[in-house]
Amino acid sequence: MEQFLPPADSLTINITLIAVLLPLAAAVINCILPGKKNKLAGWISTSAILTSAILSALVFSLIWNAHPVHAFIHWFTIGTTELNAGILLNNLSVLMLLLVNLVALPVHLYSIAYMGHDDGFKRYFTYLSFFCFSMLALVVADNLVTLYIFWELVGFSSYLLIGFWFTRDKAVMANKKAFIMNRIGDIGLLMTIIIIYSVFHTFDIDKLFGKTSIVESVLLLNRAGWLSPNENNWIVPGISYHLPIIWQYIAFAGIFLAVAAKSAQFPLHTWLPDAMEGPTSISALIHAATMVAAGVFLLARVYPLFNPVELTILAIVGCFTAFMAATIALAQNDLKRILAYSTISQLGYMVMAMGVGAYSSSLFHLVTHAFFKCLLFLVAGVVIHQVAHIRDDNQLAIDPQNIQFMGGLRKKLPFTFIMAIIGGVALAGLPFTSGFLSKDGILTQTFAWSAGKNPVFELVPVFSVLTTLLTAFYITRMIVKVFFGELRIAPVVSTLKINIDDGGWLYKLPMLLLATGCFFSLFSANPISAGHSWFLSGFLSGSAGEGSYTFLIPVSVTIASLLVIYYAWVIYSNRANPFPQRGILFDIACREWYFDTIYERVIIKPILFIGRACFWTDRRVIDGFIVLFAKAAILFSRIAAFIDRRIIDGFIDLLVKLVRGIGNLVRLFQGGRVQYYLYSMLMAIAAIFILKIFF
Amino acid sequence: MITITDFLLVGAGLFCIGIYMLVSKSNLIQILIGIELMLNAAILNLVAFGRYDRFNNGGQMFALFAIVLAAATTAVTLAIILNVYKRYRTIDPGKIDGLKD
Known about the structure:
The complex is a heterodimer. By secondary structure, chain A is mainly alpha-helical.
């Protein structure tokens, strides 16, 4: 450590380091463990995450509402740029640190049972620990470069886990899609980091966005509208560096892309439903609770960067995403896809909350959502597992994820049923649950934000309330279809053997742990209002709900939600479905607003066409040219070979023949035969005489 | 009348025949005969030039000595041929090439 820290703080830093590095150590140990199905791997990862969770709880208690701790070491220097690597602990990072660990721990336990019979058991836990390490490091990273590194690693481990069953075509397609979508976001983030560095000359998050942040001082200097479009230059005190204002918007666009990709916001949300090809426990941890929250976390980290215009864009996009995903979730039949769209919808809420300035409510919703959505996914995992059992026992050809085949499971899976009810109620945001506290915080602040603005902005709170009601509807539909009524395949198959149960404590304990996080008591003493909870007091900005909204909205939304839930319960438990399974609205919802189709037509096809055109050009033009060149070269070399063989070699052959002839001639005289000696002697004498006579 | 030129022509002829035999025959005996022919050509020349020494008859005398010597060398040569045959089982000079390096 280069800077001086009080001993207590350096102890905190060390504890954090251990908490972050333990999952990495587990991943490395799992890597070198022998055997593909080594049961030890699960317990190594779980004990690592357990220790990590205890340590992060300790760190949380030390840092929460105390002074932030920031420690770093010098990493490397390029030119005059010094790059540090370090840990920044403030309320936000310790909250995320604790949250990730608290969600990861039940998922680890659950995975030991859930993945127990999988051939890739050890690989699964290696990846899982690696993901936990990346995620924990991401939340405590103190500068944008290390943040970016772990941002990439998180995306990479998500890629590995989506494609965990890499022999399935769909899984491979899904992880490719997720990876490409995330790359688009990563490019945006990188772009923003570069812009921020070229303006502020530092990567340090604390310096940039902390309490005495550069960004905020610029805000004051430029009369509170520092980044408004009227300003021509991005003026930074102390640095004579001027950038056109357009760069500020490009930086925002980069952040937005990164958030949209990671947190599955419109227009980059389509990877998340496909990512459900991974194991359900992974969907619970990564694609519902932690990694997808990284986008919201990033927004929270760089929050001072945005100006009102950009925040409005965030609010509108978040609201649109929330509404769109909720409508899609209405018509899906795949259990995990419903939950995936629900996740997108809830993430849209968080982004919208960031946009309307409900900073703390957004984070609050992030935390509560992590618990109940993770719980719902674990429930889905159990249900899918058991339905797959029914399928295998009876040799049925059904999709174990399709809710059309389920029903009546509450009698067979009573514990899971209760857990699903708890998670569903929290998701719907009924009173006494954590979802109520966070969601109503967001709603009230959305109304407060839109008040006195252009009437167009009134649409944002209206649609967010609408989304709440849709959420209540689809989650009721899902639970009713899965757990109530009778098993739908029972009448069709007469000799149905059903031999299923809730599973052992490894299934039950994690769900129980997560269920405790779904109630208000963990967050606020007052079950109806979160206004004075410990959570919101931890974040200064964002005053939760003012005036008449605080009372009116929660009450009316709750009543409306209850009505919707009752309505949904009535129509779906009656079996007779009053909704037509056709029509434009149904098609739009069922086909997921045609996003994949549009992307296929507008982006993928042109790109494939360009690819084919390039291929053709390469084949015909470039290759043709090269082939021509090659043929010319062959011709030339044939000529050269001819010259070589006939002329150069011929000359040498001639020489050789001459030499051989002379040699043979001379050899005659040395043959050892007396008569030749005599003969040559005579010749010599004759030659002498001939010469003598004629010359 | 027979002139000295005629004698010399006969001697030259004999000598040429001897040389031809010497280089072309593949039998040591025939080669020996060739040598004898050449020797006799020389003796014929001695006798022919003997007419210019009518008092001492030196040419004839010298011819007699040469004949004797020729007989002696022939004897020695035959002995050599016999030994060569014993050693190489042939008297073809082409096959006796132990003289080369």
